[in-house]
Amino acid sequence: MNLRRVRAIARKEIIQVWRDPRSLMIVLLMPLMQMALLGYGVNLDIKHVPICVFDREGSQQSQSLMKAFQASPYFQIVEADRDYEAVKRAIDGGRCKMAVVVPPDFSQDLAATNSASVQTILDATDDNTANIARGYAQAVVETFSNDVQTQRLQSMGQQQPNPPAVAEYRVWFNEDLESRDFVIPGIVAMVLALVGAQLTSLTISREWERGTMEVLVSTPVTRMELMAGKILPYFFIGMLDAALCLTIAVFWFEAPFRGAVLTLFVTTSLFLVVVLGVGYFISASIRSQVGASQIALLVTMLPTTLLSGFAFPIDQMPPPVQAVTYLVHSRYYVTILKAIFLKGSGLSDLVWPIAALAAYALVVGILASRAFRKTLG
Amino acid sequence: MSDAPAGEIRIIADHLTKRFGDFVAVNEVSFEARRGEIIGFLGLNGAGKSTTIRILCGLLRPSGGRAEVAGFDVARYPERVRENIGYMSQKFSLYGDLSVMENLRFFGGVYGVKGARLAERLKFAIEMAGLEGRSDTLVADLSGGWKQRLALGCAVLHEPAILFLDEPTSGVDPESRRRFWDLIYALADEGVCVVITTHYMDEAEYCNRIALINGGRLAALGSPGELKRSAIHGQILLVEGDNPGAMLEALDGAPAVRDVAPFGSSLHIVVDDAVRDLPAIKALLAERGLSWSLIEPIKPTLEDVFVQLVAGDGVHGAAP
User: Per the structure, how many domains does chain A have?
Assistant: First the structure.
């Protein structure tokens, strides 16, 4: 490998990116836009679920329960109905996701059994939201009946009975259970996968389309020199983009960062080599710029969105799909990033995903260097 | 071979063949080219000129036969071949978004030219292209002739022993073509072996030797003079008149006429003996009521050779 030739190609590539508005946009604007779109767009938290209430009792206690729902950050009462017809219309019309119906014997029941029961009607077209809303509703009602019981015992001058054993939860790594905290590192991985593949996907096909490749292949440049010279500049650009995305993740979206920058640097470099290699492989295999760009988008976007585990947990997928995720490069980087961000993992904790990425880089490198043929036709 | 310079052999093609599926693009082409020689490949589009050049540059693998360029087998040592050649493709092949100097530096880099030699070669290439003071101009902003000369400058930056030029002057104005040929002569004088494809007949005349390619085969090989002497049996009469189409029809197959072909708005007739056959031809045209403004014997051109050898007897009805 002749470094002089690698340098000549790398320098030319940098000049071309700098002078090409389309490339500059991919380099600078695309990661910014994607970070903003995905960072704000992907929110798996459920808050302010619109609900309607149908109070069939109209007692002081039923009103207190309504107030408890109103006070919960998870719900927002959007209407109060007077009959089941109205409740049905509210849910059918999509105005609310859940209806809370207080039965006519609510306070009586509460006094007699120390436990209140209400009816909840859920719009389960989005089953995830419905499930979580049901859980929150249950919690609101339980807290309410406990409070009522405690108050009554106190008013009767009795000592509060020993509460039954309660499991206390302690949440590690994402203490607030904020979905954004674990989604943001995943989004960084996704943006880098997309941008990285785009960066190199044009680099070979552009030369074929413009006719410059015909002369380039007539020079003594070897396949390895060409690959190195083409990937090297985009590696630095990619690292710049990575720094940009990670900065936005930490300082704008306030994702907790507990790991070491060095760990981040090493793993991000490795991941970039993989994604740039994928883009180069596509570019060398497909001789049209548009085709290469589209394929690069397709093969990185879909698997990264669905199978990297950035938003959809891999261990909840059916086993055959789980098996497929092992082929998705971003899966490993998402794992690594989440671990570094939330757990503060170091290199030694991440041996296995790093090894997987390294193996990936090797295979992609071999495929990419072979994909380019120094012959025509 | 009498006109060929007797330098050392730089290119050997031996029964070189290239097939694309069932199509034989290059069919058993054999020739040699020497140091300081300009050899022109002349033929119709699709005749196999470019394919032959691409095989010799190591860009295509031959399907049969073998070729040596600068002493290296093109199929086995393409990289060694590439170190010794310069290549200008049919398509314009410099980077339009790079400046003149950036292009030159890039090719200097990939050809491994460095240090003082690089500085000297850059200066040479700029002067050769006539681009002094414009080294920061983007190549996309240059006009055709400049681009062509700069592309040549890039191709010879590493002082290759052999230069392959695939239709380098297509789409360039005559003045630029003339300047381009001056450069090619200068390079050949320094010993570069130049292989050039063209479909301009006048350009072919500038070559030391011409390889006439037809349907993938080497139809003839020799100096322009040799080709004219060997291909044309007889003499050429130039006929100009108001109605060349009718004259072509009248003369085609007439007793004294061995062959007739349109050349622009005039006709070229091949006869055995111009002085002897001229009256008969004039009589024939007069008989048909066709008037002519000029009939005179001329020296055969390469185009006549081309028509005789390549178009063969398919000339009848060929588009003027």
Answer: 2
User: In this structure, how many other beta carbons lie within 10 angstroms of the beta carbon of residue B202?
Assistant: 13
The pTM of this model reads 0.77
> What's the domain range around A228?
3-43+178-371
Rounded CA separation B154/B129 (Å): 10
Q: Is residue A163 part of a domain?
A: no
Tell me the chain A residues in contact with residue B59 when contact means C-beta distances shorter than 8 Å.
Answer: 214, 217-218, 374-376
Contact A231, A282 (CB under 8 A): no
Question: In a mutagenesis test of the A interface, which of B110, B138, B150, B163 is the best target, namely the one with the most A β-carbons within 10 Å?
Answer: B110
Over residues A3-51, the pLDDT tens digits come to 999 999 999 999 999 998 888 888 889 899 989 888 887 766 677 889 9
This model of the complex carries an ipTM of: 0.80
Residues A68 and A109 in one domain: yes
Backbone angles phi, psi at A81, to 5 degrees: -110, 165
For B59, nearest residue in chain A (alpha carbons): A375
Q: What is the pLDDT of residue A174?
A: 62
Cα–Cα distance, B298 to B216 (Å, whole number): 31
* CATH number of the domain that residue A94 is part of: 3.40.1710.10
Which domains, and CATH codes, for chain B?
9-228 (3.40.50.300), 231-315 (3.30.70.980)
Structure tokens at A10: 């790398």
A201 lies in the same domain as A325: yes
